[in-house]
């Protein structure tokens, strides 16, 4: 495993993200929505650094069907609180192709949100990407498969306090173990 962003760097990145979000909204109340499951670690750290009044909700987006390749993207909003006429901030772990953020934006807008902004910890720098961009990004990273700080491989590694690149042999060993 190769550490890409260590604990100290993550803390600084999240603090910077929070300052940018605070500046954008000032003291306007927001509804902040965690995209399950990958954003849970970031979410807990981020919302405690935001100073405006917040309602907190969750939504689930799953596209990685047990691997490192994306499968069909499914959004589950059954547990989401009411977002009608609210200023919504969506928090996700990583912006890769942008399909997840684009679909979440459309669905929350269709639910009547007054505005939808998006914040992500990581944005992969890659060629094919949706035209929709996240509003707030803590770190840009190369196009490699990363785990830790909420991000998983086969639901493992979310607990790591850093972001790391999984080596091919670790991918193979993990799927042999839990897959
Ligand atoms: P997108 O829809 O932008 O292509 O992908 C977003 C979702 O794919 C993320 O929320 C995350 O669940 C998953 N994903 C994309 N890249 C990575 C990665 O490098 N590592 C992990 N663990 N998940 C990723
Ligand atoms: Mg995700
Ligand atoms: Mg995943």
From TrEMBL:
Keywords: Cytoplasm, Glycosyltransferase, Magnesium, Metal-binding, Nucleotide-binding, Purine salvage, Transferase. It is an enzyme of class 2 (transferase). It comes from Neorhodopirellula lusitana. Its EC number is 2.4.2.8. Belongs to the purine/pyrimidine phosphoribosyltransferase family. InterPro entries: HGPRT, Hxn_phspho_trans, PRTase-like, PRTase_dom. Pathway: Purine metabolism; IMP biosynthesis via salvage pathway; IMP from hypoxanthine: step 1/1. It catalyses: IMP + diphosphate = hypoxanthine + 5-phospho-alpha-D-ribose 1-diphosphate; GMP + diphosphate = guanine + 5-phospho-alpha-D-ribose 1-diphosphate. CDD domains: PRTases_typeI. This is Hypoxanthine phosphoribosyltransferase. GO terms for molecular function: glycosyltransferase activity. Residues 8-153 form the Phosphoribosyltransferase domain. Gene3D superfamilies: 3.40.50.2020. Its cofactor is Mg(2+). Coiled coil: none annotated. It is found in: Cytoplasm. Pfam families: Pribosyltran.
């Amino acid at each position: 495993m190769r550490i890409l962003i260590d604990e100290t760097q993550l803390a600084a990145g999240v603090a910077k993200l929070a300052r940018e979000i605070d500046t954008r909204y000032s003291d306007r109340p927001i509804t902040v929505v965690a995209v399950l499951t990958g954003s849970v670690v970031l979410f807990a750290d981020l919302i405690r650094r935001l100073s405006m009044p917040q309602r907190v909700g969750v939504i689930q987006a799953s596209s990685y069907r047990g691997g490192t390749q994306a499968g069909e993207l499914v959004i589950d909003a059954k547990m989401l609180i009411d977002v009608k006429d609210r200023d919504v901030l969506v928090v996700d772990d990583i912006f890769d192709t942008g399909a997840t953020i684009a679909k979440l934006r459309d669905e929350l807008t269709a639910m009547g949100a007054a505005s939808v902004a998006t914040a992500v910890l990581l944005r992969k720098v890659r060629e094919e990407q949706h035209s929709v961009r996240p509003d707030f990004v803590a770190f840009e990273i190369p196009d490699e498969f990363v785990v830790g700080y909420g991000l998983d491989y086969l639901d493992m590694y979310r607990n790591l306090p850093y972001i790391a690149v999984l080596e091919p042999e670790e991918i193979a060993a993990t799927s042999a173990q839990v897959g």
